[in-house]
UniProtKB/TrEMBL annotation:
Keywords, comma-separated and alphabetical: Cell wall, Cell wall biogenesis/degradation, Glycosidase, Hydrolase, Secreted
GO biological process: carbohydrate metabolic process; cell wall organization
SUPFAM superfamilies per UniProt: Pectin lyase-like
Residue numbers annotated as active site: 195
InterPro entries referenced in this protein's UniProt entry, alphabetically: Glyco_hydro_28 (IPR000743), PbH1 (IPR006626), Pectin_lyas_fold (IPR012334), Pectin_lyase_fold/virulence (IPR011050)
Protein name, entry field: Exopolygalacturonase
Catalyses which reaction(s): [(1->4)-alpha-D-galacturonosyl](n) + H2O = alpha-D-galacturonate + [(1->4)-alpha-D-galacturonosyl](n-1)
Provenance organism: Acorus calamus
Amino acid sequence: MGETKTGGAKIKRKVRSGNQLVQHKRVFDMITSNLCPPGPFKGYLKAVEDLSRYGSSDDWIEFREINRLTITGGGTLDGQGAAAWPYNKCPKNFHCKVLPTSVKFVRMTHTVVRGLTSLNSKFFHFAVLQCANFRAMGIRISAPKDSPNTDGIHIERSSGVSISQATIGTGDDCISIGQGNSQITIHGITCGPGHGISVGSLGRYPNEGDVKGLVVKDCTLTGTTNGLRIKTWANSPGKSSARNMTFEDIVMNNVANPIIIDQTYCPYASCSSATPSRVRLSDIKFKNVRGTSSTPVAVSLDCSPGVPCRNVHLNDVHLDFSGGSPAKSACDNVHASYSGTQIPPPCA
């Protein structure tokens, strides 16, 4: 993987040509304000399949508290997740034990990741946690459409994050923007299969941070089970908000639920809904979203009766139902405005 310098010490991580099996977790943990970028990563790393080898760890490779790290070179990380997916109980169990994420970036600053490929992660492919000024570009992510919880890139409690020119096909969200994020830019993403590009889920845990300053632009989604989705849990234990979010210049190709706000999100057979979601959504724009919907309802704005969505604006939306009949809109507890083309027609 090249050479990293920190002070007078040198740490070498070399990946030769061909396949290499990394049998246990690797942690790169160096706090420095002058870290030289390592050389290109051109290897093919395979994660061990045996889950017992990970112990209590919830990741395979972790970069932590590094300043000015650059990873380039077109290498491949193969999580070999197929053998582990049957042990993933999270789609059915709220208190499940999560499987290892392939790569985590934790409390990083000024990070650049370019040209990597991630295949068949056991859980998330990449997780960006508590990072500042993180840029990823030209990443390719692939897992089968029925692989559970294989989110492409999950971002949480981070600021100044840019993800661009990525090709992502997974069994879950192509990109998920979790709680506590600010100034996030998603640009030039090709997504599908998967669950689309999602904000959330939000409101599951106490003391979640707000989401603010999101731009999703120039993306193409094909055959996904959702398009642009904002999802929050009902019965949320605390108050939070998500605001100032723009989704612009998006193409949908036979996508289910192309535009969806779901404030009664529940991935299980049933969830407690004694109280409505306490996540306040506001200042949301959908601009120039066009293409085809595989579901009759192409625009669904299902907001919380406790804190209705405010200042939601749709401009130049043209989504035809691929089934032949006219597409529809569905709205509840939302203060929305419209301009330009509106197909389907706005809610009455």
